[in-house]
Amino acid sequence: MFTGIIEATGKITTIEEKGSNRTIWIESSLSPELKTDQSVSHNGVCLTVEEVAGSRHRVTAIDETLSKTTLGSWKTGNTINLERCLLMNGRLDGHIVQGHVDCTGVCVHRTEKDGSWKFDFEFPEEFGALVIEKGSISLNGISLTAFNVGRNCFSVGIIPYTFEHTSVNRLKRGKFVNIEFDIIGKYINRAITGHL
Prior knowledge:
single chain; mainly beta; Elongation Factor Tu (Ef-tu), domain 3; 2 domains; six-stranded antiparallel barrel; 3 helices; 13 strands
């Protein structure tokens, strides 16, 4: 479990295809602190650390993960957001994020607002009931607040700190992101409708 408060960014240094799996090496300031078997959020996707070597660590994504996230399009040199799992002895600064991506969405517009940025996204309409005005949403692992919510769209505002300390500054129109909707909203929707 995560909070959506990004600890560091990492750079993808190597990608290996093994059958239907992708093994990825990431270099970051966080990597030396990681341990084998630890769960780490990579652009919002919970992956298990398989090996740590100096300033790099290795993870593997299987077919299920590749089919539901943006991991299949990652390339060497890409920058990704990293967060270690939540310690249960501190403040929950973001919101509850599982690292279980629900779908991908596409950035349809990016606007600079003289000190902040607004990003507009579209996503599959079947998930529309899971986004509410001023509700929490995770984009590439970043805990954000949705507004301008429509049936298949929403916007988020980005403050300078988030823009400078996450990979959101590299996000342009036409780029896809990993979306995880608020878990509380998902359970409520399931209880009311009987389906996701």
